[in-house]
Amino acid sequence: MESLFDSAARDNTPEPLAVRMRPRTLDEVIGQRHLLGSGTPLRRLVESEAPMSLFLWGPPGTGKTTLAYVVSNVTKRRFVEVSAVSAGVKDVRAAIENARRELGMSGRQTVLFVDEVHRFNKAQQDALLPAVENRWVTFIGATTENPFFSVISPLLSRSLLLTLESLTDDDVGAVLDRAVTDERGLDGAVTLRPEAREQLVRLAGGDARRSLTYLEAAALLADDVTVEVVERAVDKAAVRYDRQGDQHYDVISAFIKSMRGSDADAALHYLARMVEAGEDPRFIARRIVIFASEDVGMADPTALQVAVAAAQAVEFIGLPEGRINLAQAVIHCALAPKSNAVVKAIGAAQADVRAGLIGQVPPHLRDAHYPGAKKLGHGEAYRYPHDFDHGVVRQDYAPEEVRDRRYYEPTTHGAEAPVAERWAKLRAFLRGER
Questions:
Q1: Cys-Cys with 91: which of 61, 87, 137, 389 at CB 3.0–4.6 Å?
Q2: What is the largest CA-CA distance in the chain?
Q3: DSSP labels, 222-270
């Protein structure tokens, strides 16, 4: 049976599928609903004659170039694309000068789109300022990095900043479905099996362009696209992993238990399975942060710092680089000494509260700053610890109902050993046991 490659050769279609399927109107754009509603800046730009400047910030494949192209197409403005990877100041100035000439001669406006604008140095960004300030062009800059760190303040302050979000699985699936049936795409020439569609969605990782590139590669091999065809086309074995089903819960459970068991190799294996299957890296990061307090706790207080830093790094840079930060946190937590004393302590305290062991706050600990508090005896006889040796003074802190309860029972593992020794002395002194 003839493959799509043969028909494509006859049709002499040079453009990649991702380019052919680029939306022509805002209504054709899939995803980014928060930017496309009535009254949003993008809608106003399309409906208005006035030029404006935008920065589109988001992960790869979320539609930054697409939105710039749609604005140009719908408003009938010239579309000029400059890549910050290869263009210099001379190229920028030439593009601006051509836009000014076109505006003066025909009145036609130009959309100047700068892809990866964060790669421009200060001099190159400065070259854009006159065009933005005088509105010689509608400037749209696309960046995958935080523009507050990579774009000069004068340029950023003169532009609107719009943040794009990674596409959902449903969004990517809709992109694939449209490409299979649309006459600009595969025009029904291939059959995309449900399992293969699911695999393409996972491999895409929220990147619409990547999903179409993989689909096109698979369609070049066969007109019946199965998981096996996708594996051959992309050279990547399918990871059997249902993010809504048993595999999701089984793998994350094994991941946590491997870290708890101090097996860094096993934990990294499960991390890799989740990353390769397209699991949300923020979900993974959240589990590591929880683990750092629940299973490591005071045995290594730095584990929480590492876990939180990894979570912030994932938010900041995303995948694929974020996998390195996750791996570092996994290794740190897996090899750290373990203690569940923190989670047991808060659990015991909550259990008492739920059982009604609450009691009144001791009068000397109550707030004494508002008018009339002293008349009620609030704050009287409070002993300020800093006025005493070692910053510790014996007095009642807990309500009478729980005065003898013990919640935090530290282990002698890792850094918690000296904590346990100090807490034993403090508890004995505060409760008059010595």
A1: 87
A2: 95
A3: -SEE-HHHHHHHHT-------TTSHHHHHHHHHHHHHHHTT-HHHHHHH
CATH of the domain at 411: 1.10.3710.10
- Give the position of tokens 């694929």: 320
* Pair 254, 329 in one domain: yes
Nearest to 22 by CA among 84, 74, 69: 69
Domain residues for the domain of 224 are 169-234
1 located within any domain: no
